[in-house]
């Protein structure tokens, strides 16, 4: 059995599934530019550079206390003593030569150490030391990303975003689009 209530519901479902068609029209109209405002964003520009940086340094001047030890003499004496020790401690061939080399090196190092310890600072020489240093300078700048223009079109003032900068008073073409649809 079909009642009126079910018919009304079926009609609403059927009407709800029918698409509502809309239409739109476009036309080109002229407008006068009233004002132009730059749209900007802040960016940080980094510029690398190489700078020469110089500093003054005080370098100590040394003087010897007493007589300096001769490295050559210590080398020879160490070699002789090392050879004698090598020959006494071992019966094998070449032990004296190995002892001679070891003694010479020890004698030379002992003389160097003694000469270093016998020094005192008597003054300073000022010298300049320079090096290249990489630096980066930063600068905050305003970058233009577009323009907001106010245009008078058919007696209405409208705002339009643009990538082109127009001058106030300029006549420009604007596309006007009108949409029609059922509510």
3D structure, described in words:
The protein has 183 residues and is α+β, with helices and mostly antiparallel strands. Helix content is 30%, strand content 51%. The protein has 3 helices and 4 strands. It has a 4-stranded antiparallel sheet, with helices on one face. Strand 2 (119-153) and strand 3 form a beta hairpin. Helix 2 runs antiparallel to helix 3 (95-117). The protein starts with a helix and ends with a strand.
Order of H and E elements: HEHHEEE
Rounded mean pLDDT is 78
CATH architecture verdict of the domain at 18-42 and 142-180 = Beta Barrel
| CATH level 1 class label of the domain at 18-42 and 142-180 | Mainly Beta
CATH topology of the domain at 18-42 and 142-180: OB fold (Dihydrolipoamide Acetyltransferase, E2P)
Q: Low-confidence parts, pLDDT < 50 over ≥5 residues?
A: none
The helicity comes to 25-40%
Q: Multimeric state of these chains?
A: single chain
Please identify the structural class as seen in this structure: alpha+beta
Q: What is the β-strand count?
A: 4
Strand order of the largest sheet: 3-2-1-4
- Outline the biggest β-sheet: 4 strands, antiparallel
| Termini Cα gap | 35 Å
Radius of gyration, taken over Cα atoms and rounded to an integer in Å: 49 Å
Tell me the number of helical segments per DSSP (H or I, 4 or more residues long).
3
> So what's the overall shape?
rod-shaped
| Beta fraction | over 45%
